[in-house]
Amino acid sequence: MTWRPRNETAEDRRRQNAARDMICAHRRCEALDLSERLYEIDWMFHRGRRPICWAEYKHRDEQYDTVILGVAKWTRGCMLARRTGLPFLFMVEWPGHGLHWARLDKRAFPVEIGGNRRGQNGDIEPVIHVPIKNFKPL
Q1: Are the CB atoms for 131 and 69 separated by under 8 Å?
Q2: Residue 116 lies in a domain
Q3: pLDDT of residue 37
Q4: Are 51 and 62 in contact (CB under 8 A)?
Q5: What number of other Cβ atoms are within 10 A of residue 127's Cβ?
Q6: Would you say residue 2 lies in a domain?
Q7: Does any domain span residue 1?
Q8: What range does the domain containing 90 cover?
Q9: Which of 56, 48, 60 minimizes the C-alpha distance to 98?
Q10: What pairing do the DSSP bridges indicate for beta strands 88-94 and 98-103?
Protein backbone atom coordinates (compact mmCIF):
# COMPACT_ATOMS: atom_id res chain seq x y z
CA MET A 1 0.00 0.00 0.00
CA THR A 2 1.38 3.40 -0.97
CA TRP A 3 1.28 6.13 1.63
CA ARG A 4 -1.00 9.04 0.86
CA PRO A 5 -0.90 12.23 2.95
CA ARG A 6 -4.06 13.34 4.71
CA ASN A 7 -4.96 16.86 3.73
CA GLU A 8 -7.21 17.42 6.70
CA THR A 9 -6.75 20.72 8.53
CA ALA A 10 -7.76 21.63 12.08
CA GLU A 11 -10.69 23.55 10.57
CA ASP A 12 -11.76 20.46 8.60
CA ARG A 13 -11.71 18.42 11.80
CA ARG A 14 -13.67 21.12 13.67
CA ARG A 15 -16.35 21.11 10.96
CA GLN A 16 -16.53 17.34 10.96
CA ASN A 17 -16.87 17.20 14.75
CA ALA A 18 -19.59 19.88 14.70
CA ALA A 19 -21.50 17.97 12.01
CA ARG A 20 -21.16 14.72 13.97
CA ASP A 21 -22.49 16.41 17.11
CA MET A 22 -25.42 17.91 15.16
CA ILE A 23 -26.31 14.52 13.68
CA CYS A 24 -26.09 12.83 17.09
CA ALA A 25 -28.35 15.46 18.69
CA HIS A 26 -30.85 15.30 15.81
CA ARG A 27 -31.02 11.49 15.67
CA ARG A 28 -30.48 10.93 19.42
CA CYS A 29 -27.51 8.67 18.88
CA GLU A 30 -23.76 8.47 19.33
CA ALA A 31 -20.96 8.19 16.77
CA LEU A 32 -18.02 5.85 16.69
CA ASP A 33 -15.18 7.60 14.84
CA LEU A 34 -13.73 5.22 12.25
CA SER A 35 -11.59 7.73 10.33
CA GLU A 36 -8.34 6.74 12.05
CA ARG A 37 -9.01 3.03 11.59
CA LEU A 38 -8.98 0.77 8.54
CA TYR A 39 -12.66 1.31 7.72
CA GLU A 40 -12.06 4.06 5.08
CA ILE A 41 -15.24 5.89 6.16
CA ASP A 42 -15.85 8.39 8.93
CA TRP A 43 -18.46 7.03 11.33
CA MET A 44 -20.75 4.33 12.56
CA PHE A 45 -23.75 5.84 14.36
CA HIS A 46 -25.30 3.82 17.16
CA ARG A 47 -27.75 3.88 20.05
CA GLY A 48 -26.19 2.14 22.98
CA ARG A 49 -24.60 -1.01 21.61
CA ARG A 50 -26.99 -1.12 18.59
CA PRO A 51 -25.48 0.27 15.35
CA ILE A 52 -27.88 2.22 13.12
CA CYS A 53 -25.84 3.29 10.06
CA TRP A 54 -22.44 3.85 8.45
CA ALA A 55 -21.58 7.38 7.27
CA GLU A 56 -19.08 9.47 5.34
CA TYR A 57 -18.90 13.27 5.72
CA LYS A 58 -17.76 16.00 3.32
CA HIS A 59 -17.83 19.77 3.57
CA ARG A 60 -18.09 21.61 0.27
CA ASP A 61 -17.67 25.37 -0.12
CA GLU A 62 -19.39 25.43 -3.50
CA GLN A 63 -22.50 23.66 -4.68
CA TYR A 64 -22.45 21.96 -8.08
CA ASP A 65 -24.96 19.59 -9.65
CA THR A 66 -23.12 16.62 -8.13
CA VAL A 67 -20.82 15.79 -5.22
CA ILE A 68 -17.90 13.46 -5.89
CA LEU A 69 -16.92 10.59 -3.64
CA GLY A 70 -13.99 8.25 -4.15
CA VAL A 71 -14.97 4.78 -5.31
CA ALA A 72 -12.89 3.24 -2.49
CA LYS A 73 -15.02 4.98 0.17
CA TRP A 74 -18.25 4.23 -1.67
CA THR A 75 -17.30 0.58 -2.12
CA ARG A 76 -16.29 0.20 1.52
CA GLY A 77 -19.49 1.85 2.77
CA CYS A 78 -21.64 -0.30 0.49
CA MET A 79 -19.80 -3.47 1.50
CA LEU A 80 -20.33 -2.66 5.20
CA ALA A 81 -24.01 -1.95 4.48
CA ARG A 82 -24.46 -5.20 2.56
CA ARG A 83 -22.71 -7.28 5.22
CA THR A 84 -24.51 -5.71 8.20
CA GLY A 85 -27.89 -4.67 6.80
CA LEU A 86 -27.24 -1.08 7.97
CA PRO A 87 -27.55 1.84 5.53
CA PHE A 88 -24.52 3.76 4.22
CA LEU A 89 -25.18 7.50 4.29
CA PHE A 90 -23.18 10.25 2.59
CA MET A 91 -23.42 13.46 4.63
CA VAL A 92 -22.53 16.73 2.87
CA GLU A 93 -22.52 20.20 4.39
CA TRP A 94 -22.73 23.36 2.29
CA PRO A 95 -22.35 26.80 3.92
CA GLY A 96 -25.69 28.57 3.87
CA HIS A 97 -27.54 25.34 2.99
CA GLY A 98 -26.77 23.19 6.02
CA LEU A 99 -26.17 19.48 6.37
CA HIS A 100 -27.74 17.04 3.89
CA TRP A 101 -27.62 13.28 3.45
CA ALA A 102 -28.07 10.68 0.73
CA ARG A 103 -28.26 6.91 1.04
CA LEU A 104 -25.68 5.35 -1.27
CA ASP A 105 -25.97 1.59 -0.72
CA LYS A 106 -29.20 1.02 -2.66
CA ARG A 107 -28.22 2.22 -6.14
CA ALA A 108 -25.43 2.30 -8.68
CA PHE A 109 -23.59 5.41 -9.86
CA PRO A 110 -21.46 5.89 -12.97
CA VAL A 111 -17.71 5.77 -12.28
CA GLU A 112 -15.19 8.11 -13.86
CA ILE A 113 -11.69 9.39 -13.19
CA GLY A 114 -11.73 12.54 -11.07
CA GLY A 115 -10.46 14.25 -7.96
CA ASN A 116 -8.30 17.30 -7.45
CA ARG A 117 -4.97 18.24 -8.86
CA ARG A 118 -2.71 18.86 -5.85
CA GLY A 119 -0.08 16.65 -7.45
CA GLN A 120 -0.04 14.13 -4.62
CA ASN A 121 -0.15 10.38 -4.93
CA GLY A 122 -3.79 9.29 -5.08
CA ASP A 123 -5.34 12.68 -5.86
CA ILE A 124 -6.72 11.48 -9.18
CA GLU A 125 -8.79 8.35 -8.61
CA PRO A 126 -11.99 6.59 -9.64
CA VAL A 127 -14.97 8.59 -8.31
CA ILE A 128 -18.74 8.62 -8.39
CA HIS A 129 -20.84 11.74 -8.89
CA VAL A 130 -23.85 11.83 -6.56
CA PRO A 131 -26.52 14.24 -7.89
CA ILE A 132 -27.46 16.85 -5.29
CA LYS A 133 -31.12 16.10 -6.01
CA ASN A 134 -30.49 12.78 -4.16
CA PHE A 135 -29.70 14.65 -0.92
CA LYS A 136 -32.23 15.42 1.79
CA PRO A 137 -31.79 18.06 4.50
CA LEU A 138 -31.03 16.75 7.96
Answers
A1: no
A2: yes
A3: 83
A4: no
A5: 22
A6: no
A7: no
A8: 10-137
A9: 60
A10: antiparallel
> In CATH, what number is assigned to the domain containing residue 79?
3.40.1350.10
Q: What Å distances lie between residue 8 and 5, 24, 108, CA to CA? A: 9, 22, 28
Which phi and psi (to 5°) does residue 37 adopt? Answer: -110, -175
Q: How many CB atoms lie within 10 A of CB 122?
A: 13
Q: Is residue 4 part of a domain?
A: no
**So what's the pLDDT on residue 2?**
43
Query: Looking at residue 125, what DSSP letter applies?
Result: E
Compute φ and ψ for 28, nearest 5 degrees.
50, 60
Sign for the CA dihedral angle at 37, 38, 42, 48 comes to negative
What are phi and psi for residue 22, nearest 5 degrees?
-65, -45
* Mean pLDDT of each 10-residue bin along the chain, 138 residues long: 62 96 97 90 97 97 93 96 98 95 95 75 86 96
Best CA proximity match to 69, nearest among 48, 29, 42, 32:
42
For residue 119, the model assigns a pLDDT of: 58
